[in-house]
Amino acid sequence: MAEIMHRVGIGCRAQDIYPLLTTDEGLSRWWTTDTRGAGEVGSIIQFRFDGAGPDFEVIELVQDRRVVWRHSGEMPPAWMGTEISFDLEQTEKQTFINFSHYNWKQADAFLAHCSSKWGVFMMSLKSSIETGRGQPFPDDVHIDYDE
Amino acid sequence: MAEIMHRVGIGCRAQDIYPLLTTDEGLSRWWTTDTRGAGEVGSIIQFRFDGAGPDFEVIELVQDRRVVWRHSGEMPPAWMGTEISFDLEQTEKQTFINFSHYNWKQADAFLAHCSSKWGVFMMSLKSSIETGRGQPFPDDVHIDYDE
What is the pTM for the complete model shown? Predict the structure, then answer.
């Protein structure tokens, strides 16, 4: 199984990041402004990009420490069976987000695209906290001319 | 073995990217300004960041198509045994760079850090061509407060 990993340090406490991973308003600040359904374990979050996009079920929540989602539905097909985890690691001068999108069937061009794009969104999450302004869709940083 | 992948599309032809992967001057525009030794297959490229940094041996070159490096020396230890490939894929409206840093022994926090940082440098390569201004070290985008 293939995996995308990222690790970014944000100048804040873990408790400042956790709401950005667990509420519609928080997720809207860095991934896509059209986010609905975030809540407790079992809730299904709908992320939309011009009307289409993936759903994820919240399968684990540890306050200020860890968030895990399991892909739900059929969009995009390559994400079926995958999961995403966010692990927060607070140190004296920053909190690291350890991101993983795992259980991919293939390490192909689409995984490579998503790896670069997740990197852009991790930086959007970082700047949404540090500068008050993230770059969620539809203002996201483009990594190619197909998106 | 673990792997980092990225895929970025640049608004140019493959021949515009190839020199940025194969010459000191080109590599200095997006990764680190202190780059020496780039050349034909067998040459050892020294990438330096404040005096220290990795060496890579050029092990494959296909003009305007493919570049492969094998890590050389002992810095950083986790990169020993790894290789990096850049595959260029020209389409009508852009050229994709398919990047892979593979043969990692462990998918750990340092791999995750490097994945995010390679993403930043792929965007630096993209902007060095599209805007004429990349962000190589020491003007690189920081992803945490340890670097």
Answer: 0.97
